[in-house]
UniProtKB/TrEMBL annotation:
It comes from Cannabis sativa (Hemp). The keyword Secreted applies. This is Germin-like protein. InterPro entries: Cupin_1, Germin, Germin_Mn-BS, RmlC-like_jellyroll, RmlC_Cupin_sf. Residues 1-24 form the signal peptide.
Length: 224
């Protein structure tokens, strides 16, 4: 009986250790890539940003102004995004949050895109927006959509392709909170048709089931 008791204690100890090991995980990426390097003297980047010495930190490191100012939406999409991320607000480093202001002209759109490192909460400050996101292939590519008015909030889960479109007759404004200091953005059309160097037209023609000439036209439109 005594040996059985010791056996059970040992088994539970091993199980607890294994569970602890199974719960371990790699740190989340904070940029598109962070390639390993053998020689430290050639190191240029870390996963995120280097930290300032605490005694040198100032209040201005946590401050930025101007997000209340409307921006120019005179472009092909009729929208403009003002990002507040670790790139222009250093105090966000390691905090896992950021914010953006989006201005939309009437019929303006923030075209289909994804944030590879962040979920997004969108708050409509002015106007009427048609918004939506599409679930993954495994979930059947389901389309979740809503018409939002002033004061409404909508959530876009991490990594899901989503968009906003101003269906009102006046300019619209929204504020997006992101669960990363650098959520990243992949605008679907720009990425596929404007990559550098360009993707072979044959690949995209096959993927979209379009003629090669159509793909080449799209690549010219997006600057590839």
């Amino acid at each position: 009986m005594k040996s059985f008791f010791h056996f059970m204690i040992s088994a539970l100890t091993v199980l607890a250790w294994a569970t602890h090991m199974a719960c371990a995980f790699d740190p989340n990426p904070l940029q598109d890539f962070c390639v390993a390097i053998d020689d430290p003297k050639d190191t240029l980047f870390v996963n995120g940003k280097f930290c300032k010495k605490p005694e040198l930190v100032k209040a201005d490191d946590f401050f930025i102004s101007g997000i209340n100012i409307p921006t120019n939406t005179d472009n092909a999409f009729g929208s403009n995004v003002t990002n507040v991320s670790v790139e222009n607000l250093p105090g966000l480093n390691t905090l896992g949050v950021s914010i953006a202001r989006i201005d939309y002209a009437p019929n303006g759109t923030n075209p289909p895109h994804t944030h590879p490192r962040a979920s997004e909460i969108l708050y409509v400050a002015e106007g009427i927006l048609y918004v939506g996101f599409i679930s993954s292939n495994i979930d059947g590519n389901r389309f979740f959509t809503k018409v939002l008015h002033k004061g409404d909030v909508f959530v876009f889960p991490k990594g899901m392709i989503h968009f906003q479109f101003n269906i009102g007759k006046t300019p619209a404004v929204a504020f997006a909170s992101l669960g990363s200091q650098n959520g990243g953005i992949i605008t679907i059309a720009n990425t596929l048709f404007g990559s550098n160097p360009p993707i072979m037209p044959e690949v995209l023609a096959k993927a979209f089931m379009l003629d090669k000439d159509v793909i080449q036209h799209l690549q010219k439109q997006f600057g590839a």
